[in-house]
């Protein structure tokens, strides 16, 4: 058995020995392949990134780099072309100076020379002798020299010889420039530069003196159309920059010299400019549909150069309309602009933001018509002039947004336009309408707003996305809020906006919409701005619900912001809204205390003694609250600290002014007759306690400044206690010129002795050395006062005993201080 198995085992051993190197080789080969693949994976992103970086430089850098490369390779060719051009010009000039030929012959030969260069360039290009396509630099250089020669000679014939009329020279120069642009389609982009620049500069070189704006704009439009065709064919981005600069420059010039009879001309030119410069560039000559898929807001904002071009055309037009006399021509132009923007949005979804510009244009159209007189006796005025325009535009834009929002439900801009168009236009009309006419318009506007809210709520119930539902709910809420605003007037508008903040916060929480915070912050900022400046801009006698407005509006705003903050748990929006509520509370305390005291809001230039006292306490308390809030405000901490320190500094200035100029100890001021509960309590005692809190709050910011504030708190406490003691004895007037009784002098000593002992005991119990020092200092001061002032009338042996007692007391206090200090912990 063993003999039989032996050959087999030997064979297996040999086979395993032979297979082992093969398997080892295979494993090594597999490892090498894996290493190579991992190396490729590691290097591919870097290579791709570098390739992407290298392939995506800015258009300007690409242009200059290509121009540099072409100049380095073909500089001799182009210098030769320029030399030929100058040669033709110098030949004409030499013949002029030397008098060799008549002016007409000189110009003729110069023109023939330029034409010969152009013809030679065309011949070389057609034969393909040098290069093909756009790299045909030699023919392009010859043609450039020829066109420059023809351009210069035409100007020479017009300006120096007067052989051509202005109109003839204008036409000839335009033909030469356009011919250069046309030839650039075959010879290259640099020749197109010559043609475009030359064509746009013709009106500068030749002024016919007719002031014919129609002819000028027609010429510029024709040149732009030709330049657009050339730029599309040549495929060079910087050619677009040239034609944009030339076209918009002449357009702005036309707007600056426009006359009332030419409104339709410049307005039509602006609309055609949008089509030619933007729409045709993206959509082609036929304005075909490009795309309709939705895009995010950052992607919509980053679209270049469409948005800057549109703003460069539309913004100057809108400004001109606003400062010009209202006319039917402008109305037609504005309506056409709105229709054009809405049409272009349908052709390219990257232009969705233009719906907002269309809505803004509608608002400005209404505003520009407010110069028309309103007959208050005609109750149908709500359907005429700007009122009719506003209602038609609002309803039309709403229907447009609803229809195309249902068709392209993922494009949020349609839903936003549907939700806010009626609200925006009626709000504009409400703002422009005189108060005496609002009663007539209110009923109609309310019906339209409520009907619009009903439609929006219905659409919200069948919404496809959360954002769509949120937009419709928000628009419906805005319409209802505007109805309440028109009913409640000025204060109602502020509260309506604050209610809007709460409603938005509630809807965001309920529907869990990932809404960005900046729209709510902007709305909160508007409300706070109105509430901040309202006391000094509105009528002081304005009432709300039969009460003075500030006593109602500020507390309600505080409550609305507070409840809105509850909807934003664990977000920075919660801190923002709580800060808004705190600011409203600060405004309420600041304004209402002064109003209830003196009958008007505080005027900082003429504050009374009592207003200064109230404001110093209010501002100091609010400053401490802001500083305390800054400890947990996150990113808003710096803002809270700035506000808190500012309010504290203002309160400090008021306290200093009170001590120096409005001090009841130095002048006759009524402080109240009731002991303790009088104006002195707010003058120094409350500020002393608040300043003590302030010192604790600013200690983490600046320890030295905290010590200064702590010293100010002690000084205020001393003034407060002494003033309260004096008021007890003196009554309503405590100025120092009044006689001081012995009982009053003794009461100072007794009270300060008790306070000093209390401070020493407190410092010992809390093991605070600073309090012990302060208490002992107080006791020492009381002892000195007792022996030097209270016993000043003593003589003889009593005086000697009093001074001995003073010395023993001071020694005893020193021993007590040392003993307490020795028992204090070493830390």
Automatic annotation (TrEMBL):
InterPro entries the UniProt entry points to:
DUF2339_TM, UCP035905_mem
Task: Report the transmembrane regions from the record.
Answer: 75-92, 104-124, 136-155, 161-180, 187-206, 212-231, 238-258, 264-285, 306-323, 329-346, 353-374, 386-405, 412-433, 439-458, 470-487, 544-563, 575-597, 609-627, 639-656, 676-695, 707-725, 745-762, 774-794, 800-817
Disordered, as annotated region: 37-58
Enumerate the UniProt keywords alphabetically.
Membrane, Transmembrane, Transmembrane helix
Q: Does the keyword Transmembrane apply?
A: yes
Presence of keyword Mitochondrion: no
Where are the compositionally biased (Polar residues) regions?
A: 40-49
Q: Which Pfam families match?
A: DUF2339
> What is the protein name given in its UniProt record?
DUF2339 domain-containing protein
Q: Which organism is the protein's source?
A: Pseudoalteromonas prydzensis
Q: What phylogenetic lineage does the species belong to? A: Bacteria, Pseudomonadati, Pseudomonadota, Gammaproteobacteria, Alteromonadales
């Amino acid at each position: 058995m063993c003999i039989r198995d032996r050959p087999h085992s030997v064979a297996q051993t040999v086979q395993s020995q032979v297979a082992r190197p093969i398997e080892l080789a295979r494993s090594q080969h597999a490892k090498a392949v894996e290493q190579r693949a991992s190396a490729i994976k590691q290097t591919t992103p870097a290579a791709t990134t570098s390739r992407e970086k290298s392939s995506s430089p800015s258009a300007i850098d690409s242009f200059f780099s290509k121009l540099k490369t072409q100049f380095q390779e073909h500089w001799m060719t182009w210098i030769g072309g320029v030399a030929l051009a100058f040669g033709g010009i110098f030949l004409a000039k030499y013949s002029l100076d030397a008098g060799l030929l008549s002016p007409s012959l000189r110009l003729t030969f110069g023109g023939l020379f330029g034409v010969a260069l152009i013809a030679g360039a065309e011949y070389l290009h057609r034969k393909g002798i040098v290069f093909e396509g756009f790299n045909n630099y030699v023919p392009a250089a010859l043609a450039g020299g020829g066109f420059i020669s023809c351009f210069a000679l035409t100007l020479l014939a017009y300006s120096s010889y007067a052989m051509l009329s202005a109109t003839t020279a204008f036409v000839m120069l335009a033909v030469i420039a356009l011919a250069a642009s046309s030839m650039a389609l075959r010879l290259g982009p640099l020749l197109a530069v010559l043609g475009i620049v030359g064509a746009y500069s013709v009106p500068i070189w030749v002024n016919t003196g007719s002031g014919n704006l129609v002819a000028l704009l027609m010429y510029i439009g024709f040149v732009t159309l030709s330049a657009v065709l050339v730029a599309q064919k040549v495929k060079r981005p910087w050619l677009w920059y040239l034609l944009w600069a030339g076209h918009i420059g002449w357009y702005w010039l036309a707007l600056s010299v426009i006359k009332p009879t030419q409104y339709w001309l410049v307005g039509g030119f602006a609309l055609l400019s949008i089509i030619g410069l933007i729409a045709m560039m993206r959509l082609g000559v036929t304005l075909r549909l490009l795309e309709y898929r939705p895009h995010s807001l950052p992607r919509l904002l980053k679209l270049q150069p469409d948005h800057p071009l549109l703003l460069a055309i539309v913004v100057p037009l809108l400004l001109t309309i606003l400062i010009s006399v209202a006319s039917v021509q402008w109305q037609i132009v504005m309506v056409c602009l709105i229709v054009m923007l809405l049409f272009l949005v349908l052709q390219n979804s990257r232009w969705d933001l233009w719906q907002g510009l269309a809505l803004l244009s509608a608002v400005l159209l209404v505003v520009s018509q407010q110069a028309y007189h309103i007959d208050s006796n005609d109750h149908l005025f709500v359907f005429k002039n700007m009122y009719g325009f506003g209602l038609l535009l609002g309803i039309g834009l709403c229907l447009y947004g609803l229809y195309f929002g249902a068709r392209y439900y993922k494009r949020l801009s349609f839903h936003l336009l549907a939700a806010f168009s009626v609200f925006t236009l009626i709000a504009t009309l409400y703002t422009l309408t005189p108060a005496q006419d609002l009663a007539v318009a209110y009923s109609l506007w309310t019906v339209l707003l409520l009907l619009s809210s009903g439609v929006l709520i219905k659409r919200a119930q069948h919404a496809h996305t959360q954002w769509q539902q949120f937009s419709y709910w928000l628009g419906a809420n805005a319409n209802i809020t505007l109805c309440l605003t028109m009913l409640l007037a000025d204060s109602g508008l502020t509260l309506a906006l604050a209610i809007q903040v709460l409603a938005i916060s509630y809807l965001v929480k309920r529907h869990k919409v990932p809404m960005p915070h900046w729209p709510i912050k902007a709305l909160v900022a508007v409300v706070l701005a109105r509430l901040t400046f309202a006391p000094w801009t509105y009528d002081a006698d304005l009432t709300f619900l039969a009460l003075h407005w500030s006593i109602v509006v500020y507390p309600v705003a505080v409550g609305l912001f507070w409840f809105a903050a509850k909807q934003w748990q664990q977000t920075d929006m919660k801190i923002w809204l709580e800060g808004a509520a705190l600011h409203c509370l600060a405004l309420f305390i600041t304004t209402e205390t002064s109003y209830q005291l003196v009958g008007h809001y505080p005027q900082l230039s003429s504050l009374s003694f009592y207003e200064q006292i109230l404001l110093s306490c209010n501002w100091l308390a609010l400053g401490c609250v802001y500083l305390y809030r800054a400890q947990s405000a996150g990113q808003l901490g710096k803002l809270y600290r700035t506000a808190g320190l500012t309010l504290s500094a203002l309160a400090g200035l008021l306290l200093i002014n009170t001590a120096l100029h409005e001090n009841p100890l130095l002048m006759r001021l009524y402080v109240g007759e009731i002991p303790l509960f009088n104006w002195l309590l707010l003058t120094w005692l409350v500020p002393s306690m608040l300043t003590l809190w302030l010192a604790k709050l600013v200690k983490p910011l600046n320890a030295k400044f905290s010590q200064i504030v702590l010293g100010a708190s002690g000084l205020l406490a001393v003034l407060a206690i002494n003033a309260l003691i004096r008021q007890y004895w003196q009554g309503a007037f405590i100025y120092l010129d009044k006689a001081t009784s012995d009982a009053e002098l003794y009461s100072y000593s007794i009270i300060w002795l008790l306070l000093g002992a209390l401070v020493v005991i407190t410092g010992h119990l809390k093991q605070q050395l600073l309090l012990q020092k302060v208490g002992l200092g107080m006791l020492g001061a009381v002892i000195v006062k007792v022996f030097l002032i209270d016993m000043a009338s003593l003589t003889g042996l009593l005086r000697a005993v009093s001074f001995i007692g003073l010395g023993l007391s001071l020694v005893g206090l020193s021993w007590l201080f040392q003993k307490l200090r020795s028992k204090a912990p070493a830390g």
